Amino acid sequence: MSHFVGTNHTFGNTTTQDLLDRYNPVGWIFTVMTNAIMPEWLKLVIMGAVIEISRRAFDMLWGSLVDSIWVTVTFDDEDWAYTWFHYWLARHPSWRKARSVEATTNSYDINPEDIAIPGQEDDLPSMRKVSYKPSRYTSHRMWYGGCYTVVTRSHIASNYYRVKESVSISMLSLSRNILDELVLETKKAYLQAEGKLVNVYGSNPTNCWRRLNSMPKRPIESIILDAGVKELLINDTRNFLASKEWYRRRGIPFRRGYLLHGAPGSGKSSIIHSIAGDLGLDVYVLTLSRTGLDDTGLNELLSDLPERCITLLEDVDVAFKGGMARRSLSKGSLVKAGDDVLIGEDDKPNQSHNTDDKTESRVTLSGLLNALDGIGAQEGRILFATTNDYAALDPALIRPGRMDLHINFKLANKEQAKGLFEAFYSPPGGPDDTLDEKYSDDEPPFPTLAARDLPEQQIIPTRIATLPRAQSADLAAHFAEAIPEREFSMASLQGYLMLYKLQPHDAVENVVGWVEKERAERVQAGKQVSSLSLI
Ligand SMILES: Nc1ncnc2c1ncn2[C@@H]1O[C@H](COP(=O)(O)OP(=O)(O)OP(=O)(O)O)[C@@H](O)[C@H]1O
Questions:
Q1: Which residues are near ligand 1 (CB < 6 Å)?
Q2: Are residues 360 and 404 in the same domain?
Q3: Do 285 and 429 fall into the same domain?
Q4: Ligand 1: which residue has its CA nearest to atom 11?
Q5: What are 229-282's pLDDT values in tens digits?
Q6: Best of 285, 388, 494 for a ligand 1 pocket test (most atoms within 8 Å of beta carbon)
Q7: Backbone phi, then psi, for 474, in 5-degree steps?
Q8: What region holds the BCS1 N-terminal domain (predicted)?
Q9: Are 136 and 46 contained in the same domain?
Q10: Which of 155, 170, 194 marks a domain boundary?
């Protein structure tokens, strides 16, 4: 038992003074070095060991001292937060003074004007703007929230298709709150700027989601569908997101699936994009025919979805090419209904499959169903699937609970043709300008060269004429009159109008001729197909 005697502790019969006398390191070293019996080489070894131990102890102490006054956050370039940081940094006043920088034309999917080096204001919209980012392995010093901050961009690793890098930010601060503040500020700045965009994610070969691009939100008014369809979809998705508690109380999985099927170019993808913008959700595109994707990968991807998002299975019929032939994974064998169906880009009936082939998708129908229903499938997920071939889909895939609403997108009717014409020449929110005198300030649909750079006969109209609404409605009625019911897709009508971006009157005048020409071409194409099938 120990007790205090003054400042000299007592351990049994031994005092701290005794211990110090016995284990005093300096005294001990001195005793060793002056020991006449000990060989010289042994003294040197002991000396070396003592120095090395002291050095390591000092490093440890210094490291923990530094750790206690610096806080560090790292942004990995595979993560979206990396983009936030670069966008934020490019706009930070301290960054304007950086002296060692790397030029980049990456605008981080945000208005490039926000971060561009001044002096590019008069560039054509089609030209990329250049901005700066930190150069590699250079420490950039700046102040943030009153803290001394060091920014370092480093290269982590590279593989055959990309270089992986990260940026670390170290701040001289005893509290970690400053880091939280910085990260949240970068996020807020980016999301505010990005408010008008929809992020689209796709999966990479390692079955992780990667942001592919960010697209401007598409106004819902620009999509013209059969009466009631748009409203049904918008109301249903909005109601769903607001009904989490309703689902929880009834023990129903909180997810909803929509199957949009029908004619190509009828607006299936466009309405999904528009709904994503309306609900402020990101779109995660799942390509079942992706090379190398299998059931496990599919499961991982679905488990990794955020709580609220839109998952898009585009052209799901393509994944089931050859109808609902059900085959096992074993080479070339046909199996009974109920077994797995092999989904792959080159998946044709009676075609043999090499299971060792890592280059094609090996997702099975049961794998897809399990992934959609499984515990990994995220709550709050909205699933959209699109197809041009409804009949090719397995009933199990499209049953309620997996695909709750099935909506048929048909070829255009007269009402849609009229609506498209009006949306084209009098877009909602656009100024009610007069034709050919003023053009709308819309982004040109295609990047073009400046008119002054082209010979006169080559000048391409870069703007779409904007008609006063009454005039547009009148012309639209004439246009719609000439369009036969359910014969042309909205995409083909849009393609026709694109030929007359500046000449709405000509678009109306020539539409009858265009319809006849299109019909004649279809008859011709039909004849060619039937003569080929006879051969
Ligand atoms: N109903 C519509 N209203 C307005 N524009 C439309 C409509 N349908 C198609 N379009 C236009 O046609 C083009 C193609 O449309 P979209 O990709 O949405 O069709 P889709 O039905 O998904 O076609 P696919 O089945 O071939 O993928 C888009 O540029 C879009 O603007």
A1: 223-225, 264-270, 386, 388, 409, 420, 490-491, 494
A2: yes
A3: no
A4: 491
A5: 999 999 999 999 999 999 999 998 899 999 999 999 999 999 999 999 999 899
A6: 494
A7: -65, -50
A8: 45-223
A9: no
A10: 194
